[in-house]
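Supplementary Methods S3. Input chains for the assembly prediction are listed below.
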Amino acid sequence: MKVLVIEDEFISRVKLQKILSRYGECHIAVNGEEMMAAFVQAHEENEPYDLLTVDIRLPDITGQEIVRRIRDWEKSHHVVDEDKEVKILMVTAMSDGKNIMASFKEGCEGYVVKPFDFNKIADALARMGIHPPYR
Amino acid sequence: MIDNDNNENLEIIRDFVAEACDILDALEPSLMQLEKTISSGTIERDLFHEIFRAFHSIKGAAGFLEFESISKLTHQAESLLDLFRKGKAEIEQRHIDLFYQATDMLVKLIGLVDNQLTDTGMEVEVGQLAGLMIASFPSESDSDADEPTTGPAEDAPGSLAGVVNRLASINSLLWGIERVEHEGRRKDTLAEARTRLLVVRNELDQNGLPEPLEVAEKLIEQLDIITTKGGIDRNLIGIFQHVVDGLGRMLEAHQAGKPSDQGFLLAAVLEELAEITGDEGLPGESEMLLGRTLVNLGVITGDNLEAALAVQEKPLGEILLEMKALDQDQLALGLKIQNQRKKAVKAQPKSGDLGQTIRVDINKLELMGNLVGELVIAENMVTHHESVAGEEFESFHKAAQVLNRISREIQDLVMSLRMVPVMGTFQKLTRVIRDVSQKLEKKVEVEQRGQNTEIDKNVIENLSSPLVHIVRNAVDHGLETIEERLAAGKPETGHVILDASQEGGEILIRVTDDGKGIDKERVLQKATEKGLISPGQVFNNDEDIFDLIFQPGFSTAAQVTEVSGRGVGMDVVRKNIQDLQGSIGISSKPGKGSTFTLRIPLTLSIIEGMLVRVGNAVLTVPLLSIRESFVVKDHVITTNLDGEETILIRDSLLPIVRLSEFFGWRAEHTELKDGILIIVEYGRQARCIFVDEIIGQRQAVIKKVSNFFGDLRGVSGFSILSNGDIALVMDVTQLVRFT
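Predicted structure tokens for the full assembly:
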């Protein structure tokens, strides 16, 4: 499993990386631009990401905008047909209804409000059908 | 965890409800479009994406808020749609019917959330519908189950997709089984799961896949043990489901030509499972063991399991039986109406290209409307203040004009904020027609015209139920059955037109059908039977006869039908519409059809009025009702024996109504030539009212008449004048009716 963490804040990023490493290979991006580049590149190398965690407040873009771009890209590149759509988990401090609903409307699968710990993330991922690999 | 008492979560839930309602509203037209495209055979993939996205959004948010029923239903809808949008299966009419049902149920569930903050209380219905959806998975046909010889050699990967779906359906079946109290039902469900597993096993055997085959066989073995043990442990089922899931993933990996380590993993999990089921120890022990195992496996945590297990109160065996009958029915009906909907849907704009909007509390709009009303009054008070009256202050008048213009603009704007297009209501009506015609086995084509016409939101909400009633009547009583239509030389498909337009300050809504029309004789006969009219009573025109339909306790249907009910509705329909200061009329031609025409004033609160004086009293006459005003010169006026006066104007005789007499006031003038005559009209009828003087034209903010005044004849409300006095607002409708 390949995970891309999009998070500009250092502590959260490290924590997420630590938690998600238990699920698979974990990459990071700190803004929308980096994220999009990494995402597209992964597709070009034919090893697309299985999971994205997205912060809503980022320096150059909102999390919802990221989700929209990802979904648009997937649609225009026929990723949907091949069943390789990435799962998206929002991890953010935004806990208001508008942000939450807007995220789901754009097509994310899960939502975690900061602060988070392993269990919180694992629960959300389980609800999305993602389980840590069997050891 | 979501704590629903928390204020912040309350806000989230409210947002969820609003958002979900929006999504569901937009979903219906998409489904209609889908229905239309499958009947014409040109399915747009984008449409599937759109509908999938709608269910997906609701599912995600519902999952976050832990609304299990909503999650479950949207999950099934999504899985089904996923097959279609990826081109793995062909959509059929029965699926569309299921999506409609799911949408309806979601509306109900969202309603529950709105009222009680949870979506509990409909688990049985949700379970049933989810079961129907699972059972409708295209690869789930019965012929598959009977003949395990499916999976033609040239299309092996394709049939594997079927196996994967079947596995998913097994897991859905087992959801919440441990909570089923009735043991017989539980066994039924397990037996059903076993049957499906057997089919899977055979298919795997057919495809020559030894490793998955082994897993499937072990699963059957374990399922048998679980069944014989009787009591069902949730964790046990959880592991079982995990293995079923794993088998699905394994097959998917195989299909994609990728190596998979699932086989090894599953073998390990299965071993654990066998150890537990083989263990005859206390259930408590087995649970402990399981807990540890799960942690070791790292696959599922207790919380996850709880979240994953949805409630299914009813076993699928029963549902399936029910479903079979339902399915055939639906299919037959579905095929019948398939072709009719093309036109109805054609007119509908594609959803999704809406402009930017924000959501505002309706109470705020309400308040704003009231404030604008007050502003208009205040403005009148200033510009018509007694200290400036009659004076020629040029700059003051200029300033007053600017103020007037701006306040009017604000007023228009506030009004337009509350306006919504009738499109949504028409959509609902189209849906009603679809359902009713399906039930009655009639073919109906719906045409929508002027669906962008905008009406005040309050008005449209109150219009919805009368319109539903009218539309139902049109399909039920108006349109003939297919046989009758053919016998009458008409096309077998009936036609219903929903038409909205704006005429002056009124909105006209017409519902037209091309059915058999209203039988005058029958109406008269019925009315006589019911004692509504005396036998042999003469009516001047057809409209008056049709009007009898709106009398309480009238019904023209020879049989009371399920659809239109017992004829208790039409009088209520009229009352609803009159409450909106509107009117309803019928025109009908035998054999050609009928038209119901609704006239609704654009807005209820502020009107342009003509201020008139009768003696000391001041009255506001709605400007829209006024046709002309004049002074009597050499007009022909006749008085009949009862002392009723009529005036001849351009070859038509109009009754003169002296307002002083109508309201019982003392008038300044008694001679017609001293005062002023105003012709007012309502519908097709006109009256000539006699007043002492016209004061001028004003905007009037109507204040409702308080209930304790009782029924004030001829008065629809009050308005406040610039000097603080009160003027009655004349109700032309009643004036016409009572004179």
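Chain B touches chain A through 33 residues (CB under 8 Å). The first strand of chain B starts at residue 419 and ends at 421.
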